[in-house]
Amino acid sequence: MIRVMFTCHGNICRSTMAEFLFRDKVEKMGFGDRFYIASSATSREEIGNGVHHGTRRVLDRFGIDYSKKRAVQLTKEDYDKYDFFIGMDSANIRNMARILGKDDKTFKFLSFAGESGDIADPWYTGDFEETYRDVIRAGDGFIEYLKEEKLI
Question: What predicted TM-score, i.e. pTM, was given to this entire model?
Fold first, then answer.
């Protein structure tokens, strides 16, 4: 089982979009039973809140059910429960290291696409389509990484 935790600041936009789109992708590829995929926040600002309406619109387009998702915070205890901690931007990576106390399982999502940038934050840009394109590109790169590492 490959255990993946996607993380962003509030867990209502980017990390949630990544969680559900990536889960949908691996299920369609026939690998769904080999993954446990979740998402979390580095902050407490949105804890308990549902998925942002912009992310809901993207997921609705693909018929992906997110109805039970509520924002949760990343905890130090999560470190032993997951194989990959994937942050959406540089600030997330710093905060994840602060929370987890270690960073040897932590990656910036777009690094899997060979890029050093951040996943666009639609909370500030309002552009959920740009975030969607970033998440798809990074997710495709992550799949390739997992194949190269012979994990799938």
Answer: 0.96
Catalytic site residue 14?
A: yes
Q: What is the CATH number of the domain that holds 43?
A: 3.40.50.2300
State the catalytic residue, choosing from 13, 14, 24, 56. Answer: 14
| Count of structural domains, the chain | 1
Query: Measuring CA to CA, how many Å separate 60 from each of 24, 65, 66, 67?
Result: 12, 8, 9, 11
pLDDT tens per residue, the chain (152 residues)? 999 999 999 999 999 999 999 999 999 999 999 999 999 999 999 999 999 999 999 999 999 999 999 999 999 999 999 999 999 999 999 999 999 987 789 999 999 999 999 999 999 999 999 999 999 999 999 999 999 999 99
Query: Which residue is catalytic, options 8, 56, 89, 134?
Result: 8
Marked catalytic residue, from 24, 78, 89, 121 = 121
Residue 128 domain boundaries: 2-148
